[in-house]
Predict the structure.
Amino acid sequence: EAQVTQNPRYLITVTGKKLTVTCSQNMNHEYMSWYRQDPGLGLRQIYYSMNVEVTDKGDVPEGYKVSRKEKRNFPLILESPSPNQTSLYFCASSQSGTGATEAFFGQGTRLTVV
Amino acid sequence: GQNIDQPTEMTATEGAIVQINCTYQTSGFNGLFWYQQHAGEAPTFLSYNVLDGLEEKGRFSSFLSRSKGYSYLLLKELQMKDSASYLCAVRDNYGQNFVFGPGTRLSVLP
């Protein structure tokens, strides 16, 4: 089954404790991205990757890191989480190019930083 | 800059028709997508337009006017399960990045 898998689904952590949210896709997609979703603000892009070893900042990259060592994986790293990073996070992947190549989303990770 | 606008909330009655509008001003355009998102769940793909006109897909249709920077999603024969948020998204010129609107929360009442 084609899917994007994120882990964990729920996470409560304390300020300053490093954490990683994993994302893996099995569709051989070149393009992957991370979004955060907050009430009234919609989905905002954090980082994206056009292929292995190619990453770039989205609209709200501060406080986050990513890596793309393999095509299928795109982890999101919070080196020193703060309460303003409490949010619902989504990983997405899509095929490169044009046409009706929609983005496929993971199930989401609800992060609370206290 | 990138700007996508949608109404924040809409309410409609079961069995009725509802139209959700989306206006956009983006630096590039390579397709407009509509997604459905139930509360706390992942967005799922509904429709895609790249040329002007109407695309029909069962109870859902989507319209695009590129010259006006305007799209709408039309939902017919509304069902209770259609209560969800509807996200408008524009894909950029390079065919990679998606810019999402804030979403429209639709409530379907009996």
